[in-house]
TrEMBL record:
<feature type="domain" description="Mandelate racemase/muconate lactonizing enzyme C-terminal">
    <location>
        <begin position="149"/>
        <end position="246"/>
    </location>
</feature>
<dbReference type="Pfam" id="PF13378">
    <property type="entry name" value="MR_MLE_C"/>
</dbReference>
<dbReference type="InterPro" id="IPR013342">
    <property type="entry name" value="Mandelate_racemase_C"/>
</dbReference>
<keyword id="KW-0464">Manganese</keyword>
<dbReference type="GO" id="GO:0016854">
    <property type="term" value="F:racemase and epimerase activity"/>
</dbReference>
<dbReference type="GO" id="GO:0018849">
    <property type="term" value="F:muconate cycloisomerase activity"/>
</dbReference>
<dbReference type="GO" id="GO:0009063">
    <property type="term" value="P:amino acid catabolic process"/>
</dbReference>
<dbReference type="GO" id="GO:0018850">
    <property type="term" value="F:chloromuconate cycloisomerase activity"/>
</dbReference>
<comment type="pathway">
    <text>Aromatic compound metabolism.</text>
</comment>
<dbReference type="InterPro" id="IPR018110">
    <property type="entry name" value="Mandel_Rmase/mucon_lact_enz_CS"/>
</dbReference>
<dbReference type="Pfam" id="PF02746">
    <property type="entry name" value="MR_MLE_N"/>
</dbReference>
<dbReference type="GO" id="GO:0006518">
    <property type="term" value="P:peptide metabolic process"/>
</dbReference>
<keyword id="KW-0058">Aromatic hydrocarbons catabolism</keyword>
<keyword id="KW-0479">Metal-binding</keyword>
<feature type="active site" description="Proton acceptor">
    <location>
        <position position="170"/>
    </location>
</feature>
<keyword id="KW-0413">Isomerase</keyword>
<dbReference type="GO" id="GO:0030145">
    <property type="term" value="F:manganese ion binding"/>
</dbReference>
Amino acid sequence: MSSTPHIQAVETLLVDVPTIRPHRLSVATMNHQTLVLVRVQCSDGIEGWGEATTIGGLAYGEESPESIKANIDTYIAPLLEGQDAGAVAQRLARVAGQVQGNRFAKCAIETALYDAQARRLGVPLSELFGGRVRDSLPIAWTLASGDTARDIAEAERMLDLRRHNIFKLKIGLRGVREDVAHVAAIKAALGSRASVRVDANQAWSVTEALDGMRGLADAGVDMVEQPIVAHDKLGLKRLTDANIIPIMADEALHGPRDAFEVAATQAADIFAVKINQSGGLRGAARVAGIAEAANIALYGGTMLEGAVGTMASAQLFSTFGELAWSTELFGPLLLTEEILQEPLQYRDFALQLPTTPGLGITLDTARLARMRRA
Ligand code: MUC
Ligand code: MG
């Protein structure tokens, strides 16, 4: 007797991977990233993978890798196991009805369910989100060693490798003037060969931001990301209205409701769309749709995911009609360990999208079994 495939098991793995160098943000210095990987196994033999990440434990978001795993294992997995695997929207509606918040955990689950369903249907994941308008995505690199000379050398290497010609500089740990001098030196060294942007990760007050924005605009910087605290949307609007340099909202966007508020008041020029921040792929697609309706430009953001979350993001971003500020899906390149059988393809300043079903990647499960936390 045939029956619809059902979800047999939902498993979560914590995998700690060292970074290639300390990654210094205003909120945390990362020496490793913790990948929360979710594997959904179905009765038809198909499995799907998803991933959640955050940055610096609880420094960036209100979910930690450990809370994500605990909440999936304890509360979300039991809502899914034994249920129809093909009715993904119904599975997610049940989770949404029973679980408040937990955007990152929900993102990992949603990704795994859609990966399995796309594999089942024999199509790339992007087909479930309307289909691709591009087969590769330009990728920015983040310079965050904290040292000006080291950052310039790193940028030169990336240009030589033809891997990145867009650089995002992490600032906010030093004084505003010192940060502006650091950024201006890097922009002067790279000139018109690269686009230079900055991300203060909420470090500035509104007055510091206005001061910093003037110096950065004079230095030839192209945009400033989330200069002030996430909840201050009126402050963000003041900075955008000042019209000194394009302003991008990042931490201000915890999904479609925030996106609507920022869009309705035209409080930003650009949205950093992130699948984890948006509570999943569908949430991120809605954030992008709201931006599009409000004539706000798009940037494909990262939570420094490993290969699974990076490819999930890439599959979705490939469907966006407009992606004026490119993407920053470099997460796997910041990590010292490969978890795929075939690494993601970065070349010609872009990430190449696979055409195979689902996420289009194959995990090295033997390696993961050795690397996962006991
Ligand atoms: C962020 O705030 O944008 C993205 C790139 C990076 O280096 O950090 C992340 C987080
Ligand atoms: Mg940011």
